[in-house]
Every structure is written in C-alpha cells, then in structure tokens.
Amino acid sequence: MQFPFNVPQKRDFDVAGFGTNAVDFLIRVPEYPAFNSKIELVDYVRAAGGEVATAMAGIQRLGLKTAYIGRFGGDDAGDLGLQTLIDEGVDVSYAETIPDAVTQIAFIVIDVRNGERTVIWQRDAKLAYKESEVPVDAVARCRILHITPHDTKACIKLAQAAKANGVIVSLDIDKLFDDIQELLPLVDIMIGSAGFPEELLGISDQRVAIREIGSRFGCGVVGVTLGEKGSLLLSGEKFIATQGFAVPDGCKDTTGAGDAFRVGLLYGMLTGETVEASAKMANAVAALKCRAVGARTALPNTEELNGLIRNR
C-alpha cells in the first residue's frame, strides 16, 4: 500500500532533522559486567552518534539531500561531531556551536557475544532550544521534518511550521517527554521503541495501543521497532509486520539500529516505495548498520542496501 501522504516535491532538502547529536565512547566487553565487579575491556572507540544526526548522515549516504538543525558544544567532541556531518555531505548551515557548552556524550557498553548495548548518556542543558530559537525558515525548504522531542516545545513550533508548508513530520521517540500530547497531533509518522505505546497509553496489547495512537492523535503511520524481530507498522487500517534481517557476518553493535531503521523507512517513502517495501528497507538498513561498532560506521550505501534485500 502507498503512504497516506502527499510528499512535497522540489525542495532544497529531502529531509531536515532537528534533535540530538552526540559523541559516543563505545566500550566492548566479553560479557556485561555484574554489579560491583571488574572486567577487562576488549577495545573501545570514539565515534559520532546521536539519533537525528545519525539519521541525516544515513539518508545522505543513500543519495538524498539532508540538513541538520542542532547544537554542538564548543569542545573537541563538538568539532568532531560537526565535521563528521560535513564529511557526509549533510548541510549544517542551521547547526550551531555553543562555546561554553559540552557536547552530548554517551558511554556505551557492548556485549561482544551478541552486540547488545547499554547506554549511559548526558546532555548539557545549554544545548536545549527554546521555542523562539528554532530556525523556522528551514522547514519550508524540506520535504520531511524528522525530529526527536528532547526540546518538545521547540519541536512543536517546527512541526506547526511544517504543517503550514505541507511538510511531512516524522517523530523518533522512545520515552515520554513533557508536552508530548501536544506534539503528537502534528506528527504524520510516529515510530517508537517497542514499549513506548504502552508507556504512553497504559495499554499492554501492542496492536491495540498502536491503533489507539493513530486514532487519537491522527498519525498516518504508527509503528514500533522490535530489534532482531523486525518491526510492526500501522498504516490506515492495515498492520504491516516485517521480519528483521540477519546481520551479515554477525551483529557487532546495535547502537543506532533504531536510527538506521528510520533512515530506511524515510528513504523508501521519498523514493516512491510502498509502506511494505519501505519497512523492508528500514529493517535492512538497521541490520547493515549492526555490522560494525558505532552508530554510523556501517550505515549502507544504495548498492549494499539493494544487495541485502535482493539476496534475502
């Protein structure tokens, strides 16, 4: 089935992203450490991440045009995060550096047996946006606005501008935020973590909760990511359950797999694919991302994405 939206054409950017960037310290261990214990690490790397920054890098790598709206700290981590987006070709004209702020960081502990990770993060309050500070003019230049609601009031301001300009609004969410009930009616595509629908509504039946979100808030596509099991989307009245892909040569790190899922889904929609085909692409991008340590390291190009789908 087709997506229930009219996506605008001929804009400067296919997707503009507003939300988090981060620099991750990814620490691989033989097994997840027990409480009050010591364990020797296998290795570690420092790499750029963050939900929205990663999504913009991934969509750009698939050949579309993206812009990133967000704030970096005035430290070497901020320099790294900004430069990685520039290197990917992401437009950063709406990005800012806050000289006295510290760039968001995350320490990520990865179990080498299965690639699953635990994230410990911190975001400097100086990186937050007020409603009056968001670059509303950026929204009219894109086809899709992709957001995470860490600065929910600012997201609402941008989403309102998106609706006024016929721009599709995509939301990546994994927990409750203040004012989220005010934002959700402005959202066209809401993809959450597996437990988010129950957290939002208190309904344990996942399909019932997803259907209620679509009905109550008017989101055209509502869904959840399910890790290696794939995904579950609702478009209109139809549920679309999609299997996950096996990670080529085994899963090394799941960090950013959810961000990669959004990359594939939005890419599919923007290139005219059906919801079903886009969900398959989303799961394929997520699997390919898990080939290496880091949120962006193994994000695929179009040849790799098409190859995995073709060889399934």
Provide a descriptive summary of the structure in words.
This protein is of the alpha/beta class and 312 residues long. The chain has a single domain, classed as Ribokinase (UDP-N-acetylmuramoyl-L-alanine:D-glutamate ligase), CATH 3.40.1190. The protein has 9 helices and 14 strands. It has an 8-stranded mixed β-sheet, with helices on both faces. The longest helix is centred in the last third of the chain and has 15 residues. It is globular, with a radius of gyration of 18 Å. The mean pLDDT is 97.
List keywords for this structure.
single chain, 312 residues, alpha/beta, UDP-N-acetylmuramoyl-L-alanine:D-glutamate ligase, eight-stranded mixed β-sheet, four-stranded mixed β-sheet, 9 helices
User: So how many helices?
Assistant: 9
| Helix percentage range | 25-40%
| Superfamily (CATH H level) name | Ribokinase
Head-to-tail CA distance between termini: 21 Å
What is the annotated CATH architecture?
3-Layer(aba) Sandwich
Total domain count:
1
- What is the mean pLDDT? 97
CATH topology: UDP-N-acetylmuramoyl-L-alanine:D-glutamate ligase
Residue fraction in strands = 15-25%
- The unreliable regions are none
Shape: globular
Helix and strand sequence: EEEHEEHEEEEHEHEHHEEEHHH
Give the spatial strand order of the biggest sheet. Answer: 4-1-9-10-11-12-13-14
Derived structural class: alpha/beta
In this structure, how is the largest beta sheet organized? 8 strands, mixed
The CATH class is identified as Alpha Beta
Number of strands: 14
Radius of gyration: 18 Å
